Amino acid sequence: MLRKAVNIRFMDQNEISGNLIIPEKSTSILVFAHGSGSTGTSYRNQVLAQALNNNGFSTLLFDLLTDGEKQIDSKAENINMKIPGITFNKFNIKLLTQRLISITEWIQNNYETKNFDIGYLGASTGAAATLYAAARFHEVKVLVSRSGRVDMVDKQTLSCIVCPCLFIVGGNDKKVIDINKKTLHQLKNVKNKKIEVIQGASHLFEEQGKIQQVAKLSIDWFKTFLGR
Q1: What is the count of structural domains for the chain?
Q2: DSSP letters for 122-145
Q3: What confidence category does residue 41 fall into, taking pLDDT thresholds of 50, 70 and 90?
Q4: pLDDT tens digits for 159-193?
Q5: For strand 58-62 and strand 193-198, is the pairing parallel, antiparallel, or unpaired?
Q6: What does the pLDDT look like over 191-214, one tens digit per residue?
């Protein structure tokens, strides 16, 4: 199994680092797009990545924002308590999508991954970015959203998506369940689409055993629509 750190530079000259893992004989790669409250080193993402690797899928984990951008958001949160209405980088879907597009292009040009089938695994605001990117890259074979803020994607973009889409939501996350059901209906050109509600789980799937259920559902979906 190949494990390596990779650096990706964007058009704005910002750079991020990520962790690339390629199991032996793997033929596909899953790109993680984290949400506003998560990182590539979070427990949940590590559990998901390890489960996927154990099933023969390659993974690329990274943060969509630079350390500097995250520090700006942290300072803005303190200011926002006094001056509401400040825009945060973590909610800038256009920026997150541009980063994910650049990462996808990197995969397509990187020697070790250029022949791999590509899938997306997005969470929260990161899920919105995966939908925007999937509308552009029809080479993306499959998409899984976890507690996705898919309401941040416009109808025109949703109509351009064709890859199989699975939305996973916690049973206690009532508002996000409604959001995901509505968006699923708007994916007019997606033949294979489904929502899975994990009972007893909250938005972050922090309850015991719930993130493992997310992993199983994701693996089953990827095995169905993506080569290993």
Answers
A1: 1
A2: EETHHHHHHHHHHHH-TTEEEEEE
A3: low
A4: 999 999 999 999 999 999 999 999 999 999 999 99
A5: unpaired
A6: 999 999 999 999 999 999 999 999
Q: CA-to-CA distance for 115 and 88, rounded, in angstroms?
A: 36
Domain span at 125:
2-225
The amino acid that residue 57 corresponds to is: F
Say how many C-beta atoms besides its own lie within 10 A of residue 178's C-beta: 12
- For residue 34, the domain's CATH number is 3.40.50.1820
The DSSP result for the chain, as a single string, is -EEEEEEEE-TTS-EEEEEEEE-TT--EEEEEE--TT--TTSHHHHHHHHHHHHTT-EEEEE-SS-HHHHHHHHHHHHHHTTSTTPPPGGG-HHHHHHHHHHHHHHHHHSTTTTTSEEEEEEETHHHHHHHHHHHH-TTEEEEEEES--GGGS-HHHHTT--S-EEEEEETT-HHHHHHHHHHHHH-TT-SSEEEEEETT--TT--STTHHHHHHHHHHHHHHHHS--
Q: CB–CB of 29/142 below 8 Å? A: no
